[in-house]
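Field notebook, page 550. I keep forgetting to write these up properly, so this time I am using the form the group agreed on. The chain and the ligand, zinc ion, are recorded exactly as supplied. Prediction of the bound pose follows.
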Amino acid sequence: MKLISFLACVAAVCSCHASAAVAEADYNVVPLPRHIEAQKGDGFVLTPDVKVLYPAGNSVMERNARFVAEYVGDNLGFTPGIEGYSSLPKSKKGSKGAILLSLDGNVGNKEGYEILVGKNGIGISGATPAGIFYGIQTLRKSLPVMPRDSVAGEVVLPAVSIYDEPRFGYRGMLLDCGRYFLPVSAVKQFIDLMAMHNMNTFHWHLTDDQGWRLELKRHPEITEKGSMRKETICGRVAGVYDGQPHGGYYTQEDVKDILAYCAERHINVIPEIDMPGHTVSLLASHPEVGCVGGHYDVSTHWGPHIDILCAGKESTFALVEDILDEVVELFPSEYINIGGDEAWKQRWEVCPDCQRKIKELGLASDDGATAEHKLQGYFTKRVEKMLNDRGRKIIGWEEIFDAGVNPSTTIMAWHGFDYIVDSANAGHDVIAGSSEYNYLDYYQRQNTGEEPFLIGKYLPLSKTYQYEPMDERVLPENRHHVIGVQGFVWGEFIDNANLMTYQMLPRMAAVSESQWILPEQKLYHRFLPRLRRLTSLYDRYAYPWCRGWE
Ligand code: ACM
Ligand code: ZN
């Protein structure tokens, strides 16, 4: 395996300020492709007259071809033309100096791809356009990055054969837009970064105590009241407030725009409508579905809240059904995330409606769970049925596992490994997350005095990189239930796009290797040189990123 050293590549890039110098590609990218085999013979010389070829009439592949052209333009300063072909050129390595994209059923994994580079061209093939898209991501990250406003003369891509496929089918990132509304442009940056890191599932946290961010045509009162809070706490818990109203929500047109943007990048969008907790912004317009009624203001401070949806009133389920009806009309995702985390039970313990429901259902406290926990189980199952009836499946946070759930429910772990182990061994699909390893809102550097004000905790890049979701206690026959890994960008202190990317980068690169590559390929000291090259791409797009790797 011939690997171009990092230093040689930097030297080549640095010498091209005056343009027209030769630079070399390096296939050691993030996430690391599974097999990279150097081939004998000359490589391909990429010049501005290169063409990107795609199967004519296939609009998804045409978009893939345009991605190649755009990315090459971003890295190298020249933009190749694209051209449809009606029959596949003979050589998979491209033809007459082309970058050839081709669908090839022989690539086993539906997100896998093959890249062949020889002197006649570059071939990227995969069983699906998504697989080819990941091949395109590897190609773009292999290319050197020219300084802005300079144009590469030519770039040499050494002859190679690459085969790659992901370890996990679910590779997610959560963005919390409930705490602070982030504009569509910021959400698109988030999605661009997901694509760059081979991620395929955007978990969009759209509702929380401090804001409801999704327009519902049949319930305009929900955003009217719920999308705006009158001010925001200044610190984490102290009672000083900024006096500044904050609000915003995504119109259904915004959502469609984001869904289309994601679809082009082979990213599924899973909306999260958190319930029964984290719902004060809903109670603001629908106090009748709370346990105590009266008046609720959209919350102005952080942390879980005792006011949650009442599980004893039929009107709660009617409203939830109405909301979810519109959510499934908007979002095509097979999965809808219904939250379920941090649903404090103090109100349910004394609410006459909730207590009546507990009696009616014959729920009793035992060693495993209180009656109120079991009431959350009832709530979850009812909501799951609503979504199943509409052809969808649910994901919920790990707390719903304790409350009692159907085997069909997918669990999202967030505290640690016990929930991964217990839910996988109980036959649930589980998405692995851990606040200790992949909550990217935590500080990246120990010297917090030099960092923006954040929620706290300390999570260095090296720790995120060490994340291994497949706990040995997951029985071999249940390992397939661990369907993926996720990173999380919670938003209590992230109120703008620059801070969002700063918190994500470079830890998102570490998350991506936990999602994509095999554990035996994950070596931190080998990751760092790959990451250094990737940061030149972060810089190319002017994404702020944290430089202090401790
Ligand atoms: C969570 O952090 N409350 C899922
Ligand atoms: Zn109640």
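OBSERVATIONS:
- Confidence is low (pLDDT under 50) at residues 1-20.
- The radius of gyration is 25 Å.
FOLLOW-UP: compare against the apo run.
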